[in-house]
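Ticket #4471: structure export looks truncated?
Reporter: QA, pipeline team
Priority: medium

Steps to reproduce: submit the single chain below to the structure queue and open the exported record.
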Amino acid sequence: METLDILIIGGGPIGIACGLEAKKKGLTYVIIEKGPIVNSLFNYPVNMQFFSSSERLEIDDIPFISKEAKPKRNEALEYYRRIVTSNQLNIHLFERVLDVKKESEAFQITSDKTKYTASNVVVATGFYDLPNLLNVPGEDLPKVSHYYKDPHFYASQKLAVIGASNSAVDAALECWRKGAEVSMIIRGPEVGRRVKYWARPDILNRIKEGSIAVYYNAEVKEITENEIIFDTPDGEQRIDNDFVLALTGYMPNFSFLERLGITLSDDANRFPEYNEDTMETNVPGLYLAGVICGGMETHKWFIENSRIHAKIIMAAIRGNSTRKTTIE
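Actual output as written to the record:
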């Protein structure tokens, strides 16, 4: 079996950037992606607009031309897909990595389709696969979703949106505009301060005029077939409900990182251990790239500030850096 220089887990923008850089360096590589190209972006809401401008989403200095300064999901899908196809990147889609083991000087990687041997492994898996659960009765009902796709689905329905972030605000506004009766249930005292600057005034105005109901400092207790039940400073509330969008954020797959032998910090942030100069973890030859480097601080790393990870990693693999592992 051929020993690859690098196996990259994750075919999102940063995984693609790593593949491009590996190819430029003359390194043998493969990208393994469990879904389509940029799977996480594909699963974003259909009308999602990025907070970042198009040039900040560019990788490898390849121009990203969009109709507006801040591109939308469909434009990003087209951009990254064209990069993969025009550069003939070696990417295996709809293939899931099951296990990674270090044996002697190489890694043995098992997927649901085949096995690989690689001298180095890069984990660029992002954080969008595992939602932060409410852990309340009824969360597993069919009417509850932790992912929002299309507002049309919720037209003429009583919809509860749990959360106060960009995803929750976008869903509440879009679904209300398609005719849903929207209630927002927010654990804190206000709509999130990091909400996109053009969306935050919009949602606050809809709340002020009474178009969208809001319950602040609220904690969901239970979801039933026809209601959602939650505590507020004024006591328990029950409202009629057809669907629930629990948009309470997502987390990296920490159990996968631990299976790989990566040390995580003991605090709530669960920062993975890696060297900022090389992106190498405490496991020699195993590297991290992208948002996964931030642990539970999923707002810390974005495409625009982590695309540099690709160049850092490939330089390290080519022997341009010395290894010294520290915890973030």
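Status: closed, not a bug. The export was complete when the record was re-opened. Leaving a note from the reviewer for reference: Residues 321-328 have pLDDT under 50 and may be disordered.
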